[in-house]
Structure formats: C-alpha cells, structure tokens
Design goal:
Layout: E1 7-13, E2 16-22, H1 24-38, H2 40-48, H3 54-61, E3 65-68, E4 71-74, H4 82-98, H5 109-116, H6 120-132, E5 136-138, E6 144-146, H7 148-160
Helix pairs in contact: 1-2, 4-5, 4-7, 5-6
Length: 161
C-alpha cells in the first residue's frame, strides 16, 4: 500500500468476528460481504429495498462524469438531452458528497447550466418537470438534488450511454 492510509475494521456479531485492513474500497467490500454472510436476511432485504450500489455506480459513470473538488464534470462531447444531463450532474454531486470530494450533494441552476453546457433558462424550464416526476427535489436553499428515484432512473440511463 505504500504511503496510502489503511482502513482497519473489527466486527463482532454474536460468535462471528472479522478483522479487515487495507485500502478503504477493499475493506468496504469485504465488510459488506461479511455482514451479508452472517445476516442472510440482509441479502433478502437487499433484493427488495433499493439502496444505490455506490461501487457499481462509480464504475458505471466512468467516461461519463468526473468528480472534482470544483464539482462534477460531464465528459466533453457527451450529447444528451437536458433532463438526462441534469440527472447525471446531480448524480456526480451525490457521489462526490459520499466520497468526501464535495461538501454538498446539491447544485444551483447556475451550476447545473455551467456543468451541462446549457443556458440557465433551459435548465430552469426542465427542473419543474423533473421535480413533478420525482427525480429531483428543490432544497430550502433553492438548490437541487437527485432523489432516490432519480438515482435509480439515472442508473438505468447510464446503461444506455
């Protein structure tokens, strides 16, 4: 691992015990696998409850979205409708927040327009439609975030691109 920081996790659940150490992503995956093995009901619940698979989502967005400390960036030349571009940008914000790269998972109309390369008016016109479909929500600060339904639909959308 060299100079990289290592994550150490110790889990005890009844008689089952486990220790994991290494790269944060590797330890995260091993922890999930361990918990699924000792609690089979977790696997059953996972089948009926949608919880975004962050690792899978990250792999799927490769080549479509880059997450920087300045916010998400859509890949140059990505020619998608405004509604899809808004959802992709907000997915980037969501993942950026989860990974600690961004301080929030919301974006303003101004930021969305800049990220997707469309006029503010175009984005402003699309936002109410996305809200009515339950894909995004407006926060009390006037910014927008992807809903769980929006994450699910965007995940399906990514598979088309």
């Amino acid at each position: 691992m060299g100079d990289k920081e290592k994550l150490k996790v110790h889990i005890e659940f009844g008689e089952a015990k486990a220790d994991f150490e290494g790269d944060i992503n590797e330890v995260f995956e091993l922890t999930i696998k361990f918990l699924t093995q000792i609690c089979p009901s977790l696997e059953i619940l996972r089948r009926i409850i949608y919880t975004p698979d962050i690792i899978d989502l990250t792999k799927k967005i490769e080549g479509l979205i880059e997450i920087t400390s300045g916010g998400p960036i859509l890949s140059p030349g990505l020619n998608v409708p405004t509604r899809d571009a808004v959802c992709l940008a907000l997915l980037g914000a969501y993942l950026g927040r989860l990974f600690g790269t961004l301080s929030k998972d919301t974006l303003s109309i101004k930021d969305l327009a800049r990220i997707i390369g469309k006029a503010r008016k175009t984005v402003s016109n699309e936002a109410p439609r996305l809200i009515s479909e339950g894909l995004i929500e407006r926060t009390s600060e006037g910014e927008y975030r992807l809903t769980i339904l929006g994450i699910r639909k965007t995940e399906r959308l990514i598979e088309e691109y």
